[in-house]
Specification:
159 residues; alpha+beta; four-stranded antiparallel sheet; elongated
Length: 159
């Protein structure tokens, strides 16, 4: 699977999808984090106990956990990084399909592309690092080093 595409000055790095069983479990846990506290509050109201502070607190905590579980679920299913190469700057955004996050910009002066090794040395995997000397953008999408070398050559030739 080719994890990157470069068209019209836009680089898309796609996350390798997790196994379907893992993603299914993540989505079920996410759903339960939102539904179970809400069900508890509704059940308390039906029984005539009213809305209690503990129920609202539990709903808030589980909603917070559910939101992060949703991010993880979406990233493992649809995640991709979009890097737009404009004339004077580079824009980075992490796309979860339902929302976008991590927007950063980098001035396009003295651009350097490199590979940062990730994981075990035998895996030959790394991430793309784009820097200009002052700041940098580090991808989170793990790719084979040979694919990263091919991508860096493509980016350098594209100017």
């Amino acid at each position: 699977m080719n994890q990157f595409s470069f068209e019209k000055k836009q680089l898309k790095l796609k996350v390798a999808k997790s196994p379907i069983l893992v993603r299914l479990i993540l989505f079920i846990i996410t759903f339960l984090c939102f539904v179970l506290p809400l069900f508890g509050i509704v059940l308390n109201i039906i029984e005539g106990n009213g809305i209690k502070f503990g129920g609202i607190l539990a709903f808030g905590v589980f909603s917070f956990i559910g939101f992060f579980m949703l991010r993880i679920s979406l990233w493992n299913s649809f995640g991709e990084e979009i890097i737009q190469f404009n004339d004077d700057q580079i824009e980075y955004v992490a796309d979860y399909r339902w929302f976008k996050d991590g927007k950063r910009t980098l001035d396009k002066d003295l651009m350097m592309y490199s590979i940062k090794p990730i994981g075990y040395e035998d895996d030959n995997k790394g991430i793309l690092v784009i820097s200009n000397g002052n700041s940098k953008i580090e991808s989170v999408v793990k790719m084979q080093n040979k694919n990263l070398e091919e991508l860096i050559e493509l980016l350098q030739n594209a100017g």
